[in-house]
Write a structure and sequence with these properties.
By secondary structure, the chain is of the alpha+beta class. The protein is built from three helices and eleven strands; from the N terminus they run βββββαβββααβββ. It has one domain: Beta Barrel (M1 Pyruvate Kinase, Domain 3), CATH 2.40.33.20. 14% of the residues lie in helices and 36% in strands. The protein has a seven-stranded mixed barrel.
Amino acid sequence: MNGRLLAIARKAKSHAPMEEIPTADISIEFGIAGDFRGSSKRRQITVLAIEDWRAAVESIGCSGLPWTTRRANLLVENMALPRRIGARFSIGDVVLEVTEETEPCARMEKARAGLRAALTPEWRGGVCCRVITGGQIAPGAEVKSA
């Protein structure tokens, strides 16, 4: 079974609040249009699996915490994100390549005590990616291994 894209978010600058958006234009040059990290080739887009997020927040007794607290760009479901640098997967026509694990930072601990540690095991915090093939995506798009 393939997964699907649940939600999209971006931030205009470092430390800015996350803004959920209904669609996203993805490009090799800029990642998600309007997201400040887009020009970074290592961390253009971050992807989080809802199952990993739920496991993390439930482990600290805070299941109502919004996914945007993680500050990831894309939220997917029913897709085991690759846990290997260089692995590729697609979201609709967009192809992403994993460049690294998204390491939980001190901002997670500020959001909720214990969240940083809860996101640490088994790449629960998601993956950082670079764009291989751009396109437009919207929630409901199919997510699959490339």
